[in-house]
Write a structure and sequence with these properties.
The chain is α/β, with parallel strands linked by helices and 226 residues long. Helix content is 25%, strand content 29%.
């Protein structure tokens, strides 16, 4: 469902959508931090769509005990919420660098918007997904298909969501995904063979932009944040 903004509220500046391709995790994480630190109330919001090279990330309260056997995949402690997850090629990652005060929203509504956007995307592929009140993310038949993790600094969000599309799921067996021993994961291509990251990205971005209330966007293929 699209958000309806108060007609007396000034229109939002166009959101900048950046398509970053396949990236190592740490440089992008530090670019998110830097962008958030220097942005002003006039800075347009940005949405970054990308895939990551293989990495396990532990949230702020993440417990090392949930990383069982990482092998040669690096483990990085980061500043988002949540426990441990895996990122790798074939998984769509979307980072939301948003001024929550300007959007007049908060963390819980933002999480709900993210979950609803993914559920609606899955429905387009005839897949029934659902959110859980006890564990943020989106699930299909009890298996996790999308993870969420955010950080808010100076009223602005960064980090975001990851959606398993067409990837090697084996590394998830080396961790307790999101801190839940035995939690199974799944991916779009196992449920609908037509799904690829390239096909899934535009409609999911459209769902997010509409729910956040953006009427316009600048789309910047393969551009890196400055």
């Amino acid at each position: 469902m699209t958000r309806t903004r108060n007609p007396d509220t000034p229109p939002l500046p166009p959101v900048r959508v950046r398509h970053l391709g396949l990236q190592p995790y740490e440089p992008v994480w530090h670019q998110m931090q830097a962008f958030t630190n220097i942005r002003t109330p006039e800075t347009p919001d940005e949405i970054w769509a990308l895939e990551h090279q293989p990495v396990f990330t532990l949230g702020q309260a993440g417990k090392q005990e949930h990383v069982i056997a990482p092998g040669n995949i690096p483990v990085i402690q980061v500043d988002r919420g949540g426990q441990v997850t895996y990122h790798g090629p074939g998984q769509l990652v979307i980072y939301l660098l948003l001024d929550l005060r300007r959007l007049k929203t908060g963390i819980r509504p933002l999480v709900t918007m993210m979950e609803e956007s993914i559920v609606d995307l899955l429905a387009d592929y005839d897949i029934q997904g659902c959110a859980r009140t006890d564990a943020p993310g989106v699930y299909v038949a009890g298996k996790k298909i999308a993870s969420l993790g955010l950080r808010v600094r100076r009223g602005c969000s960064f980090h975001g969501l990851s959606l398993n599309v067409d990837m090697d799921l084996e590394p998830f067996r080396r961790i307790n995904p999101c801190g839940y021993p035995g939690l199974e994961v799944t991916q779009l291509c196992e449920l609908n063979s037509a799904a690829t990251p390239e096909k899934v990205t535009p409609p999911l971005l459209c769902q997010l932009k509409e729910r956040l209330g953006y009427n316009s966007a600048t789309d910047e293929p393969e551009t890196h944040p400055s």
